[in-house]
Amino acid sequence: MTSVQTTSIPAADTTANPRYKVTFPRVLRSEWSKFLSLRSSWITLALAVLATVVIGMVAAYRYDPVHADQHDAVALSLDGITLAQLVVGVLGVLATAGEYTTGMIRSTFAAVPHRLPVLWSKCLIYFGVVFVVGAAGAVASFLAGAGFLSGKPIALTLSDAGVLRCLFGAALYLALVAVLGAGLGMLVRSAAGGICLLVGALMLMPVFLDLLPSNWKTDVTPYLPANAGQSVFTLHTDSTMLSPGTGLLVLLGWVTAVLVGAAYRVKHSDS
């Protein structure tokens, strides 16, 4: 009599080695962890707030109604946006181009083979963080300068028409500049190249427009990124500026164009 011995094959232990899917929320959480771990990000954001508040306070303190160029308290309090935009723009460039410089981008794309969620996650994080920080800086600068302007003709309060729109418009502008920087960094994959393009787009393009005929210059100047963005946080626009809504749409068009180029290169070029 023979006996038949059967051996059972153990079922695969799925709990010991669970399969994790690469989803957008998980990519977003990964990029958020990177952002939190970088001390330089917080230092740069603090510099942006400091520039906004200190320059706004100094402008309000030195306000002279006889020789002043600014005609309302909002414009004075947002004098520091010119410097803050460069700070947050460079932060955006370094957020993307920095990974190419260190070689970390290869590990990032190995973990996220579809690649594009990495770009969208970085842009979303830097947009949200810079908007919150920019809004805090703009409101703090306005409130700090209000003490120096109390009793003067240009003095305003937060409840006056258009003031909150301008302060949060400045925060929105800074957030979009940070996204613009992130797109440029991913597009050229070089921190130095991205920063040069950012400075050129925000500050040097008006200089080059001087080479154009005067009627062309008048038609083109309002549509430059910085000028279109400025109309978003200007209380009283003149005939040379776009309306706040049109300016925001033009600025969004610039940012979208850069992101489309960055997304194409991320998807089709080797890292």
List the helices and strands and how they pair.
Elements: H1 24-37, H2 39-61, H3 73-77, H4 81-102, H5 104-111, H6 116-149, H7 163-188, H8 191-208, H9 214-220, H10 225-230, H11 244-268
In short:
The chain is mostly helical and 271 residues long. It is built from eleven helices and no strands.
Shape descriptor? globular
Radius of gyration: 24 Å
Listing every helix as H and every strand as E from the N terminus to the C terminus, the arrangement reads HHHHHHHHHHH
Query: How many individual helices?
Result: 11
Strand content: under 5%
Structural class call reads mainly alpha
Low-pLDDT segments, ≥5 res: 1-7
- Give the distance, in angstroms, between the N- and C-terminal Cα atoms: 68 Å
Average pLDDT confidence is 88
Helical content, roughly?
A: 55-70%
Described by strand count, sense and barrel closure, the largest sheet is: none
